[in-house]
Amino acid sequence: MQPADHPRIADARIGVLIVNLGSPDAPEASVVKRYLKEFLSDRRVVEIPALLWQPILRGIILNTRPAKSAALYASIWDRERGDSPLRVITGDQAGLLQAALPDVTVDFAMRYGNPSIPERLAALKAAGCTRILVMPLYPQYSAATTATVVDKVGAVLKDMRWQPALRVLPPYHDDPLYISALAQDARAEMAALDFTPDVVVASFHGMPERTLHLGDPYHCHAQKTARLLREALGVGEAGFRTAFQSRFGKAEWLKPYLDKTLQSLPGEGIRKVAVIAPGFSADCIETLEEIAIQGRETFFHAGGTHFAYLRCLNAGTAGMQMLSGLAARELAGWRESGH
């Protein structure tokens, strides 16, 4: 029995924290500048020595890019809900995952921006969570995504006297739950189109090519996801392409590039395409603007006639069944113990 003056200790609970990349709080240049400063200062994201990179970042990029990026964010901002699509969708995913797992406490955070990982881990700890499953929503592992989430969580725990036990969702690039959800959603979306695609293009976020040679498994994970998805869809190799988008700077990135692929397809007689983005768990600026707007314009300008962007799994039925299944699997043993 606790003494009367003993500090209150919340009943032990299990927490789940889903994490995605992040978004600025508003589509305004000053706000985007703050977000980009945090994002592009991460040594996992830009692996250039800080003495060389920071003058470029602070002197050039943060004085030129924020206004351009703010305009792009404004073009896809969810005006009805007053937030970025990524944050809206991730919040919806957390709410539905909470409904599916009522015996645990579910929350969400962004690696960059708000709600932050330190803030939400502190909230879970204050709610009595002594065991926490962190779920980076990156199917394919990369040091610039999954690893930096783990880095940030570790930095937060470093300052805690009473640390919770921790589990981290591993990459799920080839998990049957994931491949099945992708295929189910893609089939439904393509069935609703008013045309039959000549080719399906799977677009993944790009990474500098040097990361592959340094041992990052991202390229291999992406290629395996693409192959398994193609097979699940029953599409032959001639009717499926894999590409990488969002390259930045002058260095070589993983190829083939999405924009170059879309430019070249009409010249091959391929004028009807559907683009899917399996590496993104929620629609964001890279999918809604770079693919759905820029990609469409690029393809039509090159002579294409029909273009469709197939949305991410988001908080749809197939995607939530997958997330619930992955979480339940990773929580095995903890939930049965009752705390």
Automatic annotation (TrEMBL):
<dbReference type="GO" id="GO:0004325">
    <property type="term" value="F:ferrochelatase activity"/>
</dbReference>
<dbReference type="InterPro" id="IPR033659">
    <property type="entry name" value="Ferrochelatase_N"/>
</dbReference>
<dbReference type="GO" id="GO:0046872">
    <property type="term" value="F:metal ion binding"/>
</dbReference>
<dbReference type="InterPro" id="IPR019772">
    <property type="entry name" value="Ferrochelatase_AS"/>
</dbReference>
<dbReference type="InterPro" id="IPR001015">
    <property type="entry name" value="Ferrochelatase"/>
</dbReference>
<keyword id="KW-0627">Porphyrin biosynthesis</keyword>
<keyword id="KW-0456">Lyase</keyword>
<dbReference type="GO" id="GO:0005737">
    <property type="term" value="C:cytoplasm"/>
</dbReference>
<keyword id="KW-0350">Heme biosynthesis</keyword>
<feature type="binding site">
    <location>
        <position position="286"/>
    </location>
    <ligand>
        <name>Fe(2+)</name>
    </ligand>
</feature>
<dbReference type="Pfam" id="PF00762">
    <property type="entry name" value="Ferrochelatase"/>
</dbReference>
<comment type="similarity">
    <text>Belongs to the ferrochelatase family.</text>
</comment>
<keyword id="KW-0408">Iron</keyword>
<keyword id="KW-0479">Metal-binding</keyword>
<comment type="pathway">
    <text>Porphyrin-containing compound metabolism; protoheme biosynthesis; protoheme from protoporphyrin-IX: step 1/1.</text>
</comment>
<dbReference type="InterPro" id="IPR033644">
    <property type="entry name" value="Ferrochelatase_C"/>
</dbReference>
<protein>
    <recommendedName>
        <fullName>Ferrochelatase</fullName>
        <ecNumber>4.98.1.1</ecNumber>
    </recommendedName>
</protein>
<dbReference type="GO" id="GO:0006783">
    <property type="term" value="P:heme biosynthetic process"/>
</dbReference>
<feature type="binding site">
    <location>
        <position position="205"/>
    </location>
    <ligand>
        <name>Fe(2+)</name>
    </ligand>
</feature>
<keyword id="KW-0963">Cytoplasm</keyword>
<comment type="function">
    <text>Catalyzes the ferrous insertion into protoporphyrin IX.</text>
</comment>
